[in-house]
Structure formats: C-alpha cells, structure tokens
Design goal:
- The chain is mainly alpha-helical.
- It has two domains: 182 residues, no CATH class; 48 residues, no CATH class.
- The chain contains seven helices and three strands, in the order αααααααβββ.
- The protein has a three-stranded antiparallel sheet with strand order 1-2-3, with no helix packed on it.
- Strand 2 and strand 3 form a beta hairpin.
- Helix 1 packs antiparallel against helix 2 and helix 1 runs antiparallel to helix 6.
- It is elongated, with a radius of gyration of 28 Å.
- It starts with 34 loop residues before the first helix and ends with a strand.
Length: 265
C-alpha cells in the first residue's frame, strides 16, 4: 500500500469484538506513513546540519530555525495521535505545523537575500530536479523509495550553503503542498464526522433532548411556570450542594441576568 496524506492511517488494530457502528475512537497514530511527516523529518535534519555548519551557535536565529523545524515535525505527529479523540485538535495541530513551515521559509529566504545569494526560480533546473525526487517518492504506481534524506544528499551535503538553502526551500514548498491537502481532507472529515469528543458532545445533547421529552419530573414547554420577575419560561433545577442538596426549584431561564425563582411543589 502506498502512502497518503489525505488521512491518517492507523498503526494499531482495533478489537474484533467491537461493533462497527458503535465505534467511537477513530484510527490514529499512523504519522510515520504520512508523506508530510517524512518530508518534515528531512527538513528538520537538514536544518540542524545547516545550522551546525553555517549559523553562529550563539545566534538567536539558529535556535528559532531549529525550533520551527521541530515544531513542524512534532505537530504533525501530535495531530495524528489526537485524531482518535478530536478532529478539531488534529486540525489545529496540523495547521500549527503548516505555520511553522512558513516561518522556516522566511528564514531561508532571508539567509539568501542577506548573503547576496540567488534564490532558485520555480522553473530553474535545480528546483525541478529537487521536485522530481519528491514526485518519485509520492508516486503510488512507482517503487517504494527511500523515505529519508538520502535522495536529497547531492543538494543537502553540498559545500555551498546557497545550494542547501535553496534545496530546503524546495522541500518546504513540498511539505506545504502536502499539509494543505491534509488540512483540506481534515476539514472535510471534521464537518462530516468529527472525532470522539465531537461525537460524544453530540450524543450528550441528543440524550438531553430525549430526557426533556421523557423525564416525568420535567415539564413541557407550555406547562413551565413563568418567571415572577420578567415572565420568561423557567427551568427546573436540582441543588447539588449545601443544606438543600437534592431539592428542586424553578429558576428563570434568563439566569444569571435574572435570578427569579419559584418552588417546585
């Protein structure tokens, strides 16, 4: 099976005794198979090596570049892990990874500009050669390629820092393309399904609606007393602490703006 960034694949198997239509937790944790994670790992390793060779160890920019690269990689992994319980959390973390990649892109563009080096154009032969490696890795009909940095060694181990910087810029564009696709798929999945937390909240709301319809201690809308202060419909509440724990009383539905009450009996 080829790798895909359209959705996270699981690296664990579910129990056979689970009923499919009752399963709440989604598969999660397959981030090592994601092309976005693999490219982000190559970028992270390349930036650590680049900073060791060409950036002053006392420079604040060095720390910022390494941390941004790490953030891009780690947030993809954390988002994949969060997929089991919350689609919203997964989407937020992948979006953070995307923002970290943009931060790195600016750092490398600044490096080239400040050192008077040329940035490769999109159609330059060097840029196309780097992109071609990425295409071969992501081609579902082709053979499995090395997911590590080896295919990019001619550029990432080059003695000229400008060549390395330009190659990393190409890799960042690849990662951004993959993350954009991933975010689009996650947005669609969140709208259609949500995750465990979102489904749990929806189930809780549905259960409360059922209780409102069937609980004999509750009243239908037209039988609820009106608030003595403002005339709004009242809600039956149960005391949870204090001397009156367990007792019920009517409270205004406009609370806390209105504190009108009535006894329930």
């Amino acid at each position: 099976m080829r790798l895909s960034d359209e959705s996270n694949k699981t690296d664990r198997s579910g129990g056979s005794n689970e009923t499919a239509n009752r399963q709440r937790l989604r598969p999660s944790g397959g981030y090592r198979q994601l092309l976005s994670f693999q490219v982000a790992t190559v970028i992270y390793d390349a930036i650590v090596a680049f900073c060791d060779r060409f950036v002053d160890k006392r420079s604040r920019t060095r720390d910022q570049m390494v941390q941004a690269a790490r953030s891009g990689r780690q947030n993809i992994a954390e988002g994949s892990r969060a997929a089991a319980t919350s689609s919203q959390t997964e989407l937020r973390l992948v979006d953070v990874a995307r923002a970290s990649m943009d931060e790195l892109l600016l750092d490398y563009e600044d490096f080239l500009r400040q050192h008077g080096k040329r940035q490769w154009g999109k159609d330059d032969p060097e840029a196309r050669a780097v992109r071609e490696v990425g295409k071969r890795r992501s081609d579902p009909t082709g053979p499995m390629n090395d997911p590590g940095a080896a295919p990019y060694s001619p550029w990432l181990k080059h003695p000229d820092p400008a060549v390395i910087a330009n190659a990393v810029i190409c890799l960042i564009h690849q990662a951004n393309y993959l993350l954009d696709r991933q975010i689009t798929a996650l947005e669609r999945q969140f709208i259609q399904e949500g995750g465990y937390c979102e489904q749990l909240a929806a189930a809780r709301l549905e259960e409360r609606r059922k209780q409102d319809r069937t609980d004999p201690t509750d009243r239908t809308e037209n039988k609820r007393p009106a608030c003595p202060l403002y005339g709004k419909a009242m809600v039956l509440r149960t005391a949870r602490k204090g001397d009156k724990t367990g007792s019920q009383s009517w409270g205004c539905s406009g609370y806390p703006g209105c504190k009108g009450t009535r006894r329930s009996d």
